[in-house]
Amino acid sequence: MGPSTSTSAVVKAFDPTKTREARKGVLGEDLPWPLPEVNNFVARGTKRTSIFVIPQVTLRKLAKTAGRRAIYVPSFSATAKGNLQYWNYPTSRPCFDLCWRWLTANCASLQAVALQLRILWASIRWQDMKPEDDDPDRRIVSHFPDRDERRWITSHKEYAPPCIYERYRISIEVLPLDDDKEIEEEDDLSWTSEGRSDRRKSTRRKRPAHSSTQRVSHLKEEWVDGVDLKLHEI
Question: Where are the residues of the annotated region Disordered (predicted)?
């Protein structure tokens, strides 16, 4: 059967030179994680809304293990289960981000939406996002007794589930400092001996031993957790 020549179907024109190729790479490093599905907090069977409705992916993991293994449930804190004074339910306690999404999804007026945006604005640590100085060089310099370290972020990796845990690869330039120490006087042990020549030698001072090799900076890289970095670094 030959190709259809009907003109009743929808026709779309495109540029054959601008074909969209599939991006290749590691998910979380080269490729961003896809946006998570919107949680409407509606149970499949009863169609009732509840804040304890969890995504299907996490629900399948819990069903496979039958509660015999500890499964990480995003946006729930299992440590609050034992505090019966503030949480008297035998389940994990919802965290702040889940409670905010639950209230936002059930907003019934524009005033409620405005209140949620105000809560979000007040929860952001704006002061931590500002650099500590006005230097245009955004590389962070850390001072140590024997060296200075200048570091900057080169790449990052995000782990599943998305928006929960990520690590950053930082390049660290180590700048060694001069170790010209004060000239220490020799221990005077001549007073225990009988010779005067030993007593004269004890008053001499040592000369600092200067290294013939010039110290240069070197570069190293390492992976650190996102929680160990400051917000203005990221």
Answer: 186-217
| Nearest by Cα to 102 from 36, 49, 161, 46 | 49
DSSP-based helix, strand, coil % in the chain, nearest 5: 25, 20, 55
pLDDT of 202: 47
Task: Give the C-alpha separation, 158 to 33, whole Å.
Answer: 8
Give the pair of three-digit tokens for residue 201: 């030698």
Query: Does residue 154 contact residue 181 with C-beta atoms inside 8 Å?
Result: no
Number of C-beta neighbours around residue 33 at 10 A: 13
- AA letter at 211: S
User: Measuring CA to CA, how many Å separate 9 from each of 4, 6, 15?
Assistant: 10, 7, 20
Q: Evaluate if pTM is beyond 0.70.
A: no
Q: Tokens in use for 51?
A: 């804040």
Q: Closest Cα partner for 139 from 131, 147, 128, 129?
A: 131
pLDDT score, position 69: 81
Ranges of residues in the chain with a pLDDT under 70 are 1-5, 7, 14, 16, 18-20, 133-139, 178-215
Distance CA 172, CA 144 (A): 14
| pLDDT at residue number 187 | 45
Rounded distance, CA 182 to CA 207, Å? 10
Angstrom distances, CA of residue 6 to CA of 2, 3, 10, 13, 14:
12, 9, 10, 16, 19
Q: How far apart are CA 100 and CA 116, in angstroms?
A: 7
Amino acid in the structure at residue 219: L
